[in-house]
Amino acid sequence: MMQIRTFQGGYDNNLSYLIWCDQTRVAALIDASVEVHPIWDVILEEELLLDKILITHSHRDHISYLNDILDFKPLAKLYGFHDLANQFNNEQFHGVHDYDVISVGKHLLTVLHTPGHLSDCLCFWHQNLNMIFTGDTMFVGRTGRTIGPDSNIFHLYNSVYKKLLTLKPATIVYPGHHYGFQKSISIGENIRLSNFFSCNSFEEFKIVMEKFEHGRGKKE
Ligand SMILES: [Fe+2]
C-alpha cells in the first residue's frame, strides 16, 4: 500500500503531499509549498524515512519551504525538470526527463513533462494506483494560468489534452493548490464538470482560458 497525507497552507492554499511506502517506510514530499512542522509530526509519528523531494515546477510558492526541509534533511534528494539544474545548483538535485521513473520504496512514479503553465512543469503519475500529482497543470475544475513570460497556452493545451486527459478516467488528480470545491477529483469527473477539460479544439480551449482571465487578479 501507499499512504498519502495532504497538507494545505503556504502562499495561496497550496497543497503539498507526503507519500510513503507502507512496507519500507520510505517517503517522498511533493512540493515544498507549506509550513514544515505538521509534515514533520507525521514523519515522526509514522517513523518515515524522507529521502526525496519532488518539485512540480519552479514557481516560488512551490519551493518556498525547501530550505526548512533541507535544514532537517540535508541529504534529501531533489527531483525536478532537468533544466533547473543551474537554478538549484545543488549536488542533491536530480534532473528528470519525460517518462523517467522515480521510486518511493516499492512504489514507482512516472514523470510526465507537462509544459504550459511553465516550461518546467512536471506531473508525477502512479500508474498502478491510478493517481497523479499535477502541480499547477491541472486543478479541480481548471488548468493553471498561462500569463507569465515562460507560459505557453498551446503547450498547456497539448500537455492537458494529449497527456493528462488520455489517462484512465478513474485516475485521481492531486493538484498543487486547493482551488476547487474539493481537494482532489478524478480525471473523468473533471472532464464532466469543467469546460476547461471538455474542449473540442485548441481554439475552444483558448476561448475558455480568455473568459477565465477576464477580470482576474495576479495570483496563480
Ligand atoms: Fe505555478
From the 3D coordinates, which CATH architecture would you assign? 4-Layer Sandwich
The helix-and-strand class reads alpha/beta
Q: Which CATH class is shown?
A: Alpha Beta
Count of individual helical segments? 6
* Lateral strand order in the biggest sheet: 1-2-3-4-5-6
Distance between the termini: 33 Å
Radius of gyration: 17 Å
What is the CATH third-level topology name? Metallo-beta-lactamase, Chain A
Q: Tell me, rounded to a whole number, the average pLDDT.
A: 96
Give the low-pLDDT segments: none
Strand content: 25-35%
Which sheet architecture does the biggest sheet show? Answer: 6 strands, mixed
Question: What characteristic shape results from the CA principal axes?
Answer: globular
Order of helices and strands: EEEHEHEHEEEEEHEEHH
Can you say what the CATH homologous superfamily is? Ribonuclease Z/Hydroxyacylglutathione hydrolase-like
What fraction, in percent, of the residue positions are helical? 10-25%
Total count of strands: 12
Structural domain tally? 1
Cofactors, ions and other ligands in the entry: fe (ii) ion
